[in-house]
Amino acid sequence: AMVVTGTRKRVISGGGGFVIPLLERADSISLENMQISVSITGLTSTGVDIQVGALTILKIKNEEEKILAAMEQFNTGKINDTISNIVDTSKEVLEGKLREILSGMSVEELYRNREKFASAVQEVAAKELEDMGLEIKAFTIKEIKDDNGYLESLGKKQVAEVKKDALIAESNAKREMEIT
Q1: pTM exceeding the 0.70 threshold for the entire prediction
Q2: Whole-angstrom Cα distance, residue 166 to residue 54?
Q3: Would you call 9 helix, strand, or coil by DSSP?
Q4: Whole-angstrom Cα distance, residue 1 to residue 71?
Q5: Does an H or E element contain 87, and which?
Q6: CA-CA distance, 3 to 144, in Å (whole number)?
Q7: Secondary structure class of 53 (helix, strand, coil)
Q8: How far is CA 92 from CA 98, 159, 170, 180, in A?
Q9: 61 neighbors 135 (Cβ within 8 angstroms)
Q10: Which of 64, 125, 153, 159 could form a disulfide with 97 if both were Cys (CB 3.0 to 4.6 A apart)?
Q11: 11 vs 4: CA distance, rounded Å
Q12: Are 66 and 43 in contact (CB under 8 A)?
């Protein structure tokens, strides 16, 4: 999109328009999707240090008001620098919101319900990014891990319980066969 400022602000998208030299200035801004990888380390509500990796697809919302807001917040005069500015700022916002939501959930909640975690982050971050003229198209949690073996221990406990239940069932079945 091209944003023309000067005599009056206007957005030209997908077509042509007139720019009055010396009185008006035209700057371009990309309306394409931007992919942002976010990786944070933070404490859960139970005090466990967890690493979370996420992928976000966002773009400038294709509405005149949002394009003007994005241009006002991020324009550097060079389209690539503007995109870089958008990505850097969005990444900071997303990292902060990831930490905020992470600190309010237990490890078990995170592990069992990634979708709830992802939608909570998306919901909170979307409000702030929308004020900047941006919209989140997709937000996905790629990985949840820890260096202390907490998540692995959760899995071991469940595996041990299943094995124990299987041994008990097998033992009961053998006992019943011996009785008959």
Answers
A1: yes
A2: 37
A3: coil
A4: 10
A5: helix 79-102
A6: 41
A7: strand
A8: 10, 38, 54, 69
A9: yes
A10: 125
A11: 6
A12: no
Among all chains, which residue has been given the structure tokens 């299943």? Answer: 162
Phi, psi of 166 (to 5 degrees): -65, -40
Per-residue pLDDT reduced to its tens digit, 127-172: 999 999 999 999 999 988 888 777 677 667 777 787 888 889 888 8
Tell me which H or E stretch contains 38.
Answer: strand 34-43
- Contact between 126 and 119 (Cβ < 8 Å): no
Residue 95: CB partners within 8 Å, gap ≥ 6? Answer: 38, 40
Instruction: Tell me the one-letter amino acid at 110.
Output: L
Other Cβ atoms within 10 Å of 25 Cβ, number? 13
Here the tokens at position 54 are 């996420």
Hey, what are 35's tokens? 């992919």
Buried b (16+ CB within 10 A) or exposed e, 77-103: eeeeebbebbbeebeebbbebbeebbe
Per-residue pLDDT at 7 exceeds 80: no
Exposed / middle / buried, residue 73 (Cβ in 10 Å: 0-12, 13-18, 19+): middle
Structure tokens at 1: 């999109």
